[in-house]
Design goal:
The structure is a single chain. This protein is of the alpha/beta class. It folds into two domains: about 240 residues, QueA-like (3-Layer(aba) Sandwich), CATH 3.40.1780.10; about 80 residues, QueA-like (Thrombin, subunit H). It has six helices and 17 strands. Strand 1 and strand 2 form a beta hairpin. Helix 5 packs across helix 6. The radius of gyration is 21 Å and the shape is globular. The protein starts with about 25 loop residues before the first strand and ends with a strand.
Length: about 350
């Protein structure tokens, strides 16, 4: 048994970052040696000082969609919210809805004075709804006009610039949340790293809302992990495999990139181009097949993300590093500061 409470720490609310910094790469950087637990402090724009020529940096190029739709129930005019989770065929989506009791199968909702409409088709397990959308024109354009960015529940400030909840290399639409460790990179910084001989591999994992789902079981081994779609193309697989073969490090940016490469690898740590769904749950005791180092943000107490980081660097090392970050007033969560674990 591994207890959820083993991953608890006290976090002052004022350390939860509510707004992104003006300069993405100006975030602070806590550097953690996973073997000794030694900690040092730096600025993210100096991340290149910790990377070596031949290292392969793995980035998740998913793009967040403005998945939060506010509408009215057509028969009563009641305000409702429909949150897009996963696209199916024929304009059918799996969604989260609020308030659930008002949106039973057959209910119809209108958004933007009828520019977009939907009908609830079915209630899924865990209360999610399958809905079918009706519209004239291009769905993505309408969504861009009517949808709001799905900021995490702990961010209460309104986002002034939508692009600040996207990485500068976001490409493929499909996420309900940003791969936030990547928010620290600028195009100039990426160019600088490539100039230093660091290989950059782009993979895709569409982040689901399950990333915010709390662990409810006392024994984490009983936790049911959410499933997310991922894809690794031939170019990315080749770069990652080449780094491993030549004795260089694979440095994943964010827990999503980590989960992608670890899901795709065979038992020898080799990656073949592939796509599929993964519900991999990484916690202490896990043996990493591909990842050597991790760039990540600071995560919620008792979350699956803290468990993943603890699997890499050791639970006590991570809790001690978090304690140091709290003492040093680091900014936490999505718009917060970063950590490099090597």
């Amino acid at each position: 048994m591994i207890k959820k409470s083993d991953f608890y720490f006290e976090l002052p609310g004022e350390l939860i970052a509510q707004d992104p910094l003006e300069d993405r790469s100006a975030s602070r950087l806590l550097v953690l040696d996973k073997n000794t637990g030694e900690v040092s402090h730096d600025t993210f724009k100096n991340i290149g000082d910790y990377l070596k020529p031949g290292d392969c940096l793995v980035l998740n190029n998913t793009k967040v969609i403005p998945a939060r739709l506010l509408g009215v129930k057509e028969d009563t005019g009641a305000n409702v919210e429909v949150f897009l989770l996963k696209r199916h065929e024929d304009d059918v989506w799996e969604t989260l809805v609020r308030p659930g009791k008002k949106l039973r199968p057959g209910a119809r909702v209108s958004f933007g004075d009828g520019l977009l409409r939907c009908e609830i088709l079915k209630v899924e397990e865990e209360g999610n709804r399958l809905v079918k959308f009706f519209y004239d024109g291009i769905f993505e354009e309408i969504l861009d006009r009517l949808g709001e960015m799905p900021l995490p529940p702990y961010i209460t400030h309104k986002l002034k610039d939508r692009d600040r909840y996207q990485t500068v290399y976001a490409r493929y639409e499909g996420s309900a949340a940003a791969p936030t460790a990547g928010l620290h990179f600028t195009k100039e910084l990426l160019k600088e790293l490539e100039g230093k001989g660091i290989d950059i591999a782009y993979v895709t994992l569409h982040v689901g809302l399950g990333t915010f789902r709390p662990v409810k079981t006392d024994n984490i081994l009983e936790h049911h992990m959410h499933s997310e779609m991922y894809m690794i193309n031939e170019e990315a697989a080749g770069k990652i495999n080449r780094a491993k073969e030549n004795g260089h490090r694979v440095v994943c940016v964010g827990t999503t990139s980590c989960r992608t490469v670890e899901s795709a690898a065979d038992e020898n740590g080799r990656i073949n181009p592939c796509s599929g769904d993964t519900d991999i749950f990484i916690y202490p005791g896990y043996r990493f097949k591909v990842l050597d180092c991790l760039i990540t943000n600071f995560h919620l107490p008792e979350s699956t993300l803290v468990m993943l980081v603890s699997a890499l660097a050791g639970r006590q090392n991570v809790l001690d590093a978090y304690e140091e970050a709290i003492r040093e007033r680091y900014r936490f969560f999505s718009f917060g500061d970063a950590m490099f674990i090597h």
